[in-house]
Amino acid sequence: MAETTQKAAPAKAAAKPPAKKATAESKLAKLGLRSDMDLVLHLPMRYEDETQVVDIREACLRGGHVSQVEGVVTKNEIAYKPRRQLLVQIADETGELQLRFMNFYGSQVKQLAEGTRVRARGELKHGFFGAEMVHPAYKIINEGAPLPTSLTPVYPSGEGLSQLVLRRAIADAMRRVDWRDTVPAEVIERMRLSNFEPAVKLLHYPPQQVDENALADRSHPAWTRMKFDELLAQQLSLKRAQRARRSKGAAALKKVGTLSAAFQAALPFKLTKAQQRVLTEIRADLRQAYPMQRLLQGDVGSGKTVVAALAAAQAIDSGFQAALMAPTEILADQHFRKIAAWMEPLGVKVAWLTGSLKKKEKAAATALVESGEAQLVIGTHALIQDTVQFSKLGLVIVDEQHRFGVGQRLTLRNKGQGDLVPHQLMMSATPIPRTLAMTYYADLEVSVIDELPPGRTPIVTRAVDQNRRDEVIERVHAAALEGRQAYWVCPLIEESEALQLQTATETYETLAAALPDLRVGLVHGRLKPAEKQEVMDAFAAGEVHVLVATTVIEVGVDVPNASLMVIEHAERFGLSQLHQLRGRVGRGSAASVCLLLYQSPLGHVAKQRLMTMRETTDGFEIARRDLEIRGPGEFLGARQSGQAMLRFADLETDGWLVDQARDVAHALLQEPQHQSTVDAHLERWLGGREEFLKV
């Protein structure tokens, strides 16, 4: 029995040397399908019901629905008006129907010759030529050919890989695979889970009487089993990675001495209760002889930097070096200025290391680090270059850790001495919802600063149509006359016709012309670091009234006098980015305002984002909604480098399964007799791809 899927007809082109033909195996490998088990776990994304045929007359009465009909070809012709197309007329004893193909191959014309019996499936419409199906799926069959007894699976596919090839490959793999269950029988019984083999087979070949809605929304018990297995593999892998890390040695940084005490005493403010709590957690970890792996979460402006500096002080008190790595030079510079101002009066040598340093400056900084004279090193990814060698690195602090790839964080961690691994503190101003933390960060200890320092003014957020731009400019002018400063953030540097966005340079020129009595500055990623710093310094000193910028000012910039934030084309930014940008204001005592300029009409997602920004300034609530809108893959950013994202489990609806998987993983790892079961389960679901976990 032949089955055909339609492809666009090839365009005529100049003769080329014949390309090497990709094999089905290489096409499958591109989808990550290398082993039999990979194929078996490549589950359908939807199903087509080919178990019934309706007569043509009934299909015509249904109209607008997907139907499967069967008939004999009575007419086959190529028409040229209004465009070239293949028209095939089929008939059964109840009526006639036209199949229309806009793109077709010569072989299809022969295949669908008059007298051929065809089974066609598609949406039936009543067009200009009567009842028709446009580009239906079809098979050439013999009279009396049996119908399938189960729903037909439709698999996620890649270029040049037909459903027919996928179905055959999966069916072959299912005959060869080892079906032994890798979840202990007592867990299956206690959780009332389906057994692995029948669950997988049902998902590939659902019987006619199956609940199609439960299959579609993935609430069917067979789907529950797949989700649980996937989450269990992830939890086992993360917890095993955590154990492996704990088996490694780290310097026990036991001393909270004179530097820590002097530093805390010199601060012009008292730590909040939340800061004191997380500092206690970090200090306890640093005293251990195995490497700390802690994520420090805190909303924009909650005071993570001072906690990180106090952790660094403990390392220095204990006779070790500390390093702080930030994703951008502006953020690294903010940290350097702030922390050096705290530490250097106390006799600590702080080194500055970034890619933009001149050769001589870089060599001098590198020498300070290598000799151990520099007790604290602050910089960008320049810290992880081969030329940088530490004398005695005890603590690594990574800010905005999701902006770095796994490999970059691993390189910095490997800068420890001999077999000792430095302690690692990662900071994030993007709060991570609980279920996400439990799945993707299950190998980390998590500390949360859940209160803001006193004296912070709430920020009022308004969404404003681009048509009211002149009013916004007037508002900026009024704020400047009252002695306040403003940010104006743009999403692009150069004009893009496709997006029709205002650019930073154009906005700068417009504002400079509209506000001749004010000083307008411009910062974007293409400026040289020294030029960028000059403008930032002038803004921090109050000499620049309005700072036009791209998102280089997204994190870390701290100018208490800035109380107005205008975000151009706010509909183009993600929620977490909007929240970070808004966090640049509200740092002083003046009432602060964030204006979200948007271009009408707004799409559904953009509307949701702007509504969220208007309704709340709580970073954790924003993160929760962001996860709802975007899903975990996009939310996690660069952290997913080399990391398998969840394919089947949905953190919104399957949170209860995460809890169960975590508990089962913990229990299995506690019992030596389950070691082979754990290995088999990880091999089945990760196929030896465990090494990406976890930095």
Automatic annotation (TrEMBL):
Write out the GO biological process terms.
DNA recombination; DNA repair
The Enzyme Commission number assigned here is 5.6.2.4
Which stretches does UniProt call biased (Low complexity)? 7-21
GO MF annotation: an example: hydrolase activity
Which reaction is recorded as catalysed by this protein? Answer: Couples ATP hydrolysis with the unwinding of duplex DNA by translocating in the 3'-5' direction; ATP + H2O = ADP + phosphate + H(+)
Q: Which Pfam families match?
A: DEAD, Helicase_C, RecG_dom3_C, RecG_wedge
- Region annotated Disordered sits at 1-21
Where does the record place the Helicase ATP-binding domain?
Answer: 285-449
**Which keywords does UniProt give here?**
ATP-binding, DNA damage, DNA recombination, DNA repair, DNA-binding, Helicase, Hydrolase, Isomerase, Nucleotide-binding
Q: Which PANTHER family match?
A: ATP-DEPENDENT DNA HELICASE HOMOLOG RECG, CHLOROPLASTIC
Q: What does this protein do?
A: Plays a critical role in recombination and DNA repair. Helps process Holliday junction intermediates to mature products by catalyzing branch migration. Has replication fork regression activity, unwinds stalled or blocked replication forks to make a HJ that can be resolved. Has a DNA unwinding activity characteristic of a DNA helicase with 3'-5' polarity.
This chain belongs to the protein called ATP-dependent DNA helicase RecG
Organism, as annotated: Pseudoduganella violacea
